[in-house]
Amino acid sequence: MRLDKPRLPVHTVDSDAALSELIEALEGVQQVSIDAERASGFRYSQRAYLIQLAIKDVGIWLMDPVAEIDLAPLIPKLNSKTWLLHAATQDLPCLSELGLKPAGLIDTELTARIVGLERVGLGSVCESLLGIELAKEHSAADWSQRPLTQEMLDYAALDVDVMFELWDKLSEIATESGKQDWLEQEFEHLLEFKPKPALEEPWRGLPGISRIKDLAKLKIAASLYAARDAIAVEKDIAPGRLIPDRSIMAAVNQAPKSRGELANNKEFQGRASRTLLSVWWDAIARAPELEISIEPSEKGNGIPNHKSWERRFPEAHHRLEVVRPLVLAVAAELKVPIENLLTPDYLRRVCFEPSEDVALQLRSFGARRWQIEAVTEEIQKGLLAAAQSQSV
Fold it and tell me: What are the tens digits of pLDDT across the range 249-264?
């Protein structure tokens, strides 16, 4: 069955009176479904441009956080509820910016991962478990535009319309597979979620930059990236809408000696590749003044980037090579993706600086009890095997 329009009544929160009606509807309700729409591919900011909220068997409310409506009266009421979301880590930051933070949390995308579903997107899970096909034509729409079309509003409402029955089905599967306790631990952990801080040198994330070892070229990458980012922030536009990453790399690889040479690089493309050509060339001309290193700075977790281990820390590399397949086997047996069984960074930190008490070490990193119980024995076996093979 294909859904093009929500089944629950939809209300638009476009006045103080409408907001009061929503607050009244929330009275006595313990659980709400919530979602947010951003404009990531269009805007620099990650702010919410639409918030969807559903109350089971009652209705759906669409709120415009950009409109001149004071949401303050809603915040304490909504923050006292358990929120039902899909891929919570995508929406929690932008909702937190508005002062919204749940008392409890349920994540259907994380649940789908833990119970072993192969495809965990909302549309895929709804289709496989509920036999419902959601209209997804507006998944990459510009939600900062005003007014929003009726089709976009219907699409947004659908995302919360299906959530209660989806959670019922997923919860049933989790109970049958003995994973409900795991989920409770995960949801409790998610309540403290904070997005990763911005990288000190974000330009090092450019595709293919790790292969560049020429310091002059790396400086071009850093300078162009910073120039693009400054304009993007000022105009609140997604950086890739000025010039894409591949254009920065095209300039890096060519390392132009003049403005004209940059202009003649056919791979240097993008909406602002020519209109802001002087800006890009000035950034390249200033690049030699930058103070950067060829190798990236150490990661904030206190250990070197694992990509350098084989050359710089061969013993740690060997431990990781021995231990990781054992953890992979546990993940396969439990039908849980390895990144959900144990955060990859935790495993790397254990292998880089092994502790006599692996369980305590994992707990200090933030691993949940069910994860520690699932992997500790195999990690200890792997560390012992690696040590024995290295001592021979």
Answer: 999 999 999 999 999 9
